[in-house]
Fold this sequence. Notes:
Elements (H helix, E strand, L loop, with lengths): L2 E6 L9 H8 L3 E8 L11 H20 L4 E5 L2 H12 L3 E5 L4 H16 L3 E5 L21 H11 L45 H13 L5 H4 L12 H5 L5 H9 L8 H23 L22 H9 L5 H13 L4 H14 L4 H11 L5 H12 L14 H8 L4 H6 L18 H7 L11 H13 L2
Parallel strand pairs: 1-2, 1-4, 2-3, 4-5
Helix pairs in contact: 5-10, 10-15, 12-13, 13-15, 14-15
The structure holds flavin-adenine dinucleotide (FAD).
Amino acid sequence: MANALVWLRRDLRLHDNPALAQAVSDGYAPVLVYVHAPQEQGDWAPGAASRTWLHHSLIALQQAIAEIGGRLIIAHGQSLHELERLQAETQAEALYFSNLYEPILQARDGRVQAAFEQRGLTVKRFNANLLFEPWQIKTGGGTPYKVFTPFWRNASAQLSLRQPYPRPDRLPDFGGTGLTIDALGLLPERDWHAGFWQYWQPGESGAAEMLDIFCEGAIDGYKEQRNLPDRTGTSKLSPHLHFGEISPQQIWRRIERVRLSESAQADLGHFKSELGWREFSYHLLHHFPDSSDRNLNPQFERFAWAEADPELLSAWQRGRTGIPIVDAGMRELWHTGWMHNRVRMIVASFLCKNLRMHWLHGARWFWDTLLDADLANNSQGWQWTAGTGCDAAPYFRIFNPVTQAERFDPQARYIKRWVPELSALPAPVVFAPWTKPAVSAALAPDYPSIPVADLAESRQSALAAYSRR
Ligand SMILES: Cc1cc2nc3c(=O)[nH]c(=O)nc-3n(C[C@H](O)[C@H](O)[C@H](O)COP(=O)(O)OP(=O)(O)OC[C@H]3O[C@@H](n4cnc5c(N)ncnc54)[C@H](O)[C@@H]3O)c2cc1C
């Protein structure tokens, strides 16, 4: 039986993995390879939190492969060079892999494909991680969509789920001498991430378990509960999806089997549309390849962002702004590697609008600290909130962090969980401690007494700057 290299990247799973399943069904013995090449991702090489997830995800994959007799070969260096070396070693006749969509990686993959094909080897590529290839959905005029609702209306109408790809029962072991996962040096020296793993189980079985938990609980009521940060009202599948430990097709098929009441059908539709936002983010990144670094809306090219004051930025990063809901979100991120979507919007709006710092300062911090850091979703999330995106929040929508907290965390449970210095403050003072300085000084002496920005003043000045853009 001839060998084929199966180059795994962000499709770190055995079930529903098109590259792997197709190599097997084409009659090849698959040689499973992971090449670590962060330098090929330019300015957006994986951040610290993401690397810790990758470390554990690779271990889980390696174990799953070993359980069916195979071996994951780990390499480190330049992708093309390592793949050519392994091709020569194994005499592989073909290369199978699933697409990545970051522009710099698409270009790299194109070069790898061309080099293999030039030497007469077969190359097959697949879509493993999206419902649609980002170039597939087009307006009537053949142009990309810039607004989510019509994009998703068109996409949903075209969706027909493919059959799941089968997981191989057995895999061959080629022996050979790959690197160990430890040798990739993915874990930082300081183990600030140690606390993460009480919340997360990287790998394919962790993803399946998370999906089961969601289907047995939070999917019912998702539309409302997804906005409440003090409870698990969402799926928490984002890091699993980012690393391709589960595919959106697997999720879609599974949620459609959940028996929901008539009234909960809206929850299902809403959850599907969140998967749709993910598709839309990839669509935008593909068609606007600069959008990870530049404003999608060119009117913002000369916008008067504030000089990034390192102290202010650090107060935001560390959760010491004096605005409780903002601080709670930033600390949830630091302690768990994840932040609730509603709170992501609040902290992002605070940074870009109240502190008027360029959204890239926030995007970079998220990139380094989020376990689900994903170039398409992160860029889109930041541009949407900053108002610089295509289908962005209008510039005059400036989240008021006090009213947002009152509405979405009415008992202040989320705030008090992540900012324990505030636990003795009663509502409504806990949402805006500076408004009752004597009470706050007595009951929350360790919390900043004055917020880093006056909410009303900074809102007015942001509105003025945004309307002049
Ligand atoms: C400023 C900002 C930055 C963000 N950065 C990222 C990021 O780096 N990586 C990331 O995966 N998401 C990002 N998001 C989107 C969103 O916050 C997360 O996807 C979501 O919180 C993940 O939690 P969940 O899996 O429980 O979501 P659920 O509500 O269960 O949704 C299911 C899946 O749908 C997708 N999804 C949900 N909301 C969005 C959205 N608004 N945009 C795109 N896809 C979405 C995710 O893949 C998610 O796992 C960002 C949002 C904002 C406002």
